[in-house]
Amino acid sequence: MDIQNFSISERLGSLDAEVRRLAVIDLPYGDEEDIVSLLLPRLADEDAAVRTEAVRALEGYEELEVVSALAPMLLDADDGVRAAVGVVLSELKGSECAPPLLPFLRGHTAEVRTLALRAIRALRVPEAFEPAMEALKDADAGVRREAVGVLGYLRMPQAIGALAEVAALDADADVRRIAIGAIGYSSEQSVLPALTRGLADNAWMVRDEAAQTLGKLRLGLAIPELVRAMQDEYWQVRVKAARSLGLLKAVVALPALIDALAHPIGNLRKEAAIALGEIADPRAIPALEGALEDSDPDVRKLSRLALTAITLAQK
Amino acid sequence: MKRIDMEFDLVVIGGGTGGPMAAVKAKEKNPKLRVLLIDKANVKRSGAISMGMDGLNNAVIPGHATPEQYVKEITIANDGIVDQEAVMAYAANSFDMINELDRWGVKFEKDETGDYAVRKVHHLGSYVLPMPEGHHMKKILYRQLKKARVEVTNRVVVTRVLTGASGEVVAVMGFDCRTADVYVIKTRAAVISTGAAGRIGLPASGYLMGTYENPTNCGDGHAMAYHAGADLANLECFQINPLIKDYNGPACAYVTGPFGGFTANSKGERFIECDYWSGQMMMEFHNELEGGNGPVFLKLDHLAEETIQEIETILHTNERPSRGRFHEKRGNDYRSQMVEMHISEIGFCSGHSASGIHVNALGETSVAGLYAAGDCASVPHNYMLGAFVYGRLCGENAAAYCAEHGQGAVDAGDVAAEEARILAPLGRTDGLTPFQIEYKTRRLVNDYLQPPKITRKYEIALRRFDEIREDAEAMFAGNPHELMRAMEAHSILDCAEMAARASMFRTESRWGLYHYYVDHPERDDDNWFCHSLLSKGADGAMQMRKKAVEPYIVAIDDEERSAYQRLRVARSAEAA
Amino acid sequence: MTIAATPTQVPVNVDNDKCIAEKGCTVCVDVCPLDVLAIDMLTKKAFMKFDECWYCLPCETDCPTGAVSVSIPYLLR
């Protein structure tokens, strides 16, 4: 008799590990109604491949019983199982899923701490605050990256100082970049030094993130630094600075933006035209009219739009 | 083969994007409703997003854009011919849908504080929201179907929606593409969510299944809506896409745009003014290709290594992941070469243009109890998020309809006739293969219907389609799989004729290349500022009529109109 | 004309040593939107039955043993 003729429940109990694994793969698409209670026992399957599939099949089931069974599997002996658990836990959304994760935020290996911090980020529970603050000093850069992410999502005022310090001093450029972005929940002036320092970071990705975050937070006090960033050696950073100057309606940026309208990189000319439209100062009209003859149609188009915006703003 | 009889309250036809959403939302509205989701493939991996999607390109997110701005933008992008209320229904519900998908586990790109990382691409009305891990989309939808306890039937090809004495939906018929069992499913309401009609024309490669759309999306829904008596709107507004040459997959300039990539001519210069995938943009594309500046390319070779890596990750893991393999085989590296692009064959797809089964802001078609969502329905520029929003509207409104309407009587003669029609190709021992009928239809579509449109060519096409219709009576299928191809060939032929008749009706040019009618090169707002509707006449032939554009709910003042008009400039005049 | 019986380079190839269809696996057959794959009743292995591939890759991605490989159809590449 063909194996397909057996029910999924029967196949789940097969002595052949491959048959069990295939049954687990089929389960979410079969007729069985209570998938969870059929899958939970397979988390303890002796075969690592079966455990991995069972973990994957439980993705999206936020019941506490599922999360409680999955979290300890961050310590599974098999690499593949641990990786799958990390992915599935990172999909969690509800704060009620947090308690089983808490014991794994500290201790264990760097891998376990990384995965647990990643999983708890989107849950935004205050219990994650202390462990994340501690993890900012972790020896492992991966752990620090996740810790910074957790604090960014938590948006708690008391984390600003620590995040600013990480943004300035961490040895890992990616940690600094994430920290700059993570500060983007507070428009308190206290974040200003960290962000302006970020604009002068050695790594261009950090400067890029800082230019973007200043615009997101509409931090007008940073306008002089953003204008300076219009001279950054990376055009990508200048594009972000132009975007932020437009959002800030920074009239003092007019000369820098008008200069950028003549830059060889079309993407920068385009962004400068948009920003000049947002600032809507008539002094930009001659430069924008010149840009109507730009070789790049996108620049011509956005210059027309900017000119219209200036006309409308004057009414 | 046997006959299988079933009875449901609501049947959702097509399990790709809008369909699963409709089924889930109908169950959420009324958990007692008996809802069936039916697909000719397997819902696990069916439809346009079988391998996911790389982002939303029409996200209307508070703080970045308003629904009013979006409605304005779409109105102008569509040359004014829109039901603004229907567009508004999308715009006003799209943010809630994003949040719901986010809760379901769809991963949208977020910044380091958890805010959506939107990117500005269009002028003002909408934003791009990348989905770096969008390949999990179908798994997420299936989980919701399971949680809502929707019944799913796979590998059943629906061929007709049957109507009752007063023209209302009473049943759905089809067959199993592996056993040829005939299904007769009584139902009070139905949602058609069968996607685009993307298999009408023949790809330039000559490879029948080398289409941009999933080839399962061959216009079955358009044909079944037509035969059920529903109106189809603006079918002359074709879908024509700028694609990677030969691969026929999307070049995704809208994904690469925010990273600095763009569409360039053979000199490496940007030439497209219009940034929406629209008929206007396709006209610019067409002119560049034909005007001596072609070929046209996707240009990324000026970008930083990190940026190219990010683009590769997004483009080679989502939607059409075989893209990387295609480039590799040709030795085409984004870092050093531009990617050659080309213009696609024609199709119907509201997701990108504006044609399809006519629906209002509730998702209702002109047939009682029949709804339509996604690429097959007429709401313009809806894309994936619009399919979800309208899936939700159709599911909820169909559930409400079921609460007030009982099951109508099914005419036994109708059932017998459709059963005979379905099974006929299996009963023959020789004749023409479905492949031959399909190939010839699609080849003629390319020869005669591809814009620029010319009356004389369209007349020839109609005559040839009539001949093929007669030939199709001799189609034979050696097995149930070929029977599926045979029934699809009928849908393709229906759509080809619809494309021709709708185009000849609108005696003006509009929507850039989509309806560039050489015999009537000017836009004629005095006579044609209206929708066109195609339906089945009393004599069984296709008939056309005009429908006034619904009163605007978002006024567009002259200044704005001209500001936009000036964005959509000169080059089209050269062609006209 | 659509049956993949003529000796030709079909886009979907199955490594019979890795395929475990005999253990009840029908994943590639299930996920193909165009229903072009099938299990050979004699060999108990998956194979491409109809030459109508859209090179969309679920069969390859979802195969639990990595037995399926898809190449771009010759007419396109």
The residue-averaged pLDDT of chain B reads 91
The CATH architecture assignment of the domain at 422-548 in chain B turns out to be: Up-down Bundle
State the helix count of chain B.
Answer: 17
Strand order of the largest sheet of chain B: 7-3-2-11-18
Per CATH, the class of the domain at 422-548 in chain B reads Mainly Alpha
Low-confidence residue ranges of chain B: 568-576
Please, could you describe this protein's structure?
The complex is a heterotrimer of chains A (315), B (576) and C (77). With 315 residues, chain A is mainly alpha-helical. Among the domains of chain A are: 1-58, Leucine-rich Repeat Variant, CATH 1.25.10; 252-315, Leucine-rich Repeat Variant, CATH 1.25.10. Chain A is built from 19 helices and no strands. In chain A, helix 2 runs parallel beside helix 4. The longest helix of chain A has 18 residues, at 297-314. Chain A is elongated. The termini of chain A are far apart. Chain B has 576 residues and is α/β, with parallel strands linked by helices. Among the domains of chain B are: 242-343, Succinate dehydrogenase/fumarate reductase flavoprotein, catalytic domain (Flavocytochrome C3, Chain A, domain 1); 422-548, Up-down Bundle (Methane Monooxygenase Hydroxylase, Chain G, domain 1), CATH 1.20.58.100. Chain B has helices spanning 18-29, 67-77, 84-104, 137-147, 220-227, 253-256, 279-290, 305-315, 323-329, 383-404, 412-427, 434-449, 455-472, 480-505, 525-528, 558-567, 571-575, and strands spanning 3-7, 10-13, 35-38, 55-59, 119-120, 127-130, 151-153, 156-163, 169-176, 182-186, 189-192, 232-233, 242-244, 262-264, 296-299, 339-343, 356-357, 370-372, 530-536, 542-548. In chain B, the strands form five sheets. In chain B, strands 7-3-2-11-18 form a five-stranded parallel β-sheet, with helices on one face. In chain B, strands 1-10-9-8 form a four-stranded mixed β-sheet. A four-stranded antiparallel β-sheet of chain B has the order 17-12-19-20. In chain B, helix 1 runs parallel beside helix 10. Chain C is an alpha+beta fold and 77 residues long. Chain C has a single domain, classed as Alpha-Beta Plaits. In chain C, strands 1-4 form a two-stranded antiparallel sheet. A two-stranded antiparallel sheet of chain C has the order 2-3. The A-B interface holds A 28-29, 33, 35, 59-60, 91, 93, 121-122, 124, 148-149, 152-153, 155, 178-182, 184-185, 205, 216, 236, 266-267, 274, 295-298, 300-301, 304-305, 308, 312 and B 44, 102-105, 111-115, 120, 123, 139-140, 142-143, 146, 149, 260, 262, 269-273, 275, 304, 306-307, 559, 563, 566-567.
